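Quick one before lunch.
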Amino acid sequence: MIQPVTEIKVGLDFGSGIQPVGRLAIRDRVIYFEYNEDFTQKGIEISPFRLPLQKGVVELPQRPFEGLAGVFSDSLPDGWGRLLFERMARAQGILPTHISPLDRLAHVGLHGMGALVYEPDNSPSAVHELIDLDHLALQTEEVLQGSSEEVIKELFALNGSSAGARPKALIGVDADRKNSSYGAKQLEVGYEPWLVKFPNSQDGPDAGAIEYVYALMAKEAGVLMPDVHLFPSQKGAGYFAVKRFDRDGNKRLHMHTASGLLHSDFRTPSLDYEDLLNLTGALTKDIREVEKMYRLAVFNVLAHNRDDHAKNFSFLMHENGDWKLAPAYDLTFSSGPNGEQSTMVMGEGKNPAIRDMVKLGLEAKLSKRLIEEIIEQTKSALARWEYLSKNYNVNKVNVELVLNSMLS
Ligand SMILES: Nc1ncnc2c1ncn2[C@@H]1O[C@H](COP(=O)(O)OP(=O)(O)OP(=O)(O)O)[C@@H](O)[C@H]1O
Ligand SMILES: [Mg+2]
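Model of the adenosine-5'-triphosphate complex:
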């Protein structure tokens, strides 16, 4: 049952117990936050720009996150997870407009993505059994077409508050990549936490294979990527799965998107890669991380990944407060608003060219030699598209479409 809450305790759990961070409260639809005094003394900044450590109660801004600070909004599912939650609410006779962001956070509870935890914990109980991905894919399809409450409950538990538009499930995968068990909460021995994606209604049956080939090419281009796997499927070319980077064995890492860090609405693109490079420098204070972000920018632009919005870049904070750019995710052939690049390159969104990429790198104080090296390495990785895409059964029309859209 969805139960309204008026207060939430926020904590951090790096895998060895919860440390209190602060308290959220809602009054007359306005949300307030106060850091726990002991926590402020530790000097660990969970969101240094928009919610820096401070004494006393702060009123959180209405926009762009429905009254929440970006760091808490990042814990909430959007797209698919939100759809499931609202379907469940409707089945209980509750209108989505009557659900507050705090009610939603209570449903993330102690087992969300990243390391932030919320109490009371109203998260669904875990499901432990071996799963059949084809069966799961079929169920997500049914939901997209509008269907029964029973399926929704199960899918909701599986989604485990992951974000993004596409249906997905948090699963455990064994070392041989053969068996997958589910349950985002606790995995059996020998299983690692992974995330598997299913096509949405606009995707073709080869969407998983395309994303898989993009991941292989990104690795060759030197972009930091988690382990990926293409699970066989009955209907299409396979299900794309990726190892979770917000978990490391039993450890948890605090995860924050560029959108959440900057309070930038990812649905109305306004960022430039220049902003992302500056953000990376300011947060990590490490030129190697800036280089990582630059490599990702080059890959996205050259590979025609134009849905590169502010929630498709994340940073990870370790227990000691150090930040790093998270490995890359959601790299695939895609179009942005009006066909443009969602994140611009030195003001150019319509058709960013190699010279804009060079300008961007120089602006970020990278050497000309390194910039050229990165661009060349990316080009030669992308040259593998035709071979790899055919090898993984991407539809012929899509092989050509991507080939003709890539920047050379
Ligand atoms: N390997 C990973 N480890 C941890 N979290 C991840 C990983 N990959 C993705 N995520 C998280 O899951 C969210 C959804 O993933 P992704 O962006 O791939 O899905 P999507 O539904 O295709 O997104 P979009 O709505 O941008 O199309 C991401 O925003 C990110 O927070
Ligand atoms: Mg995404």
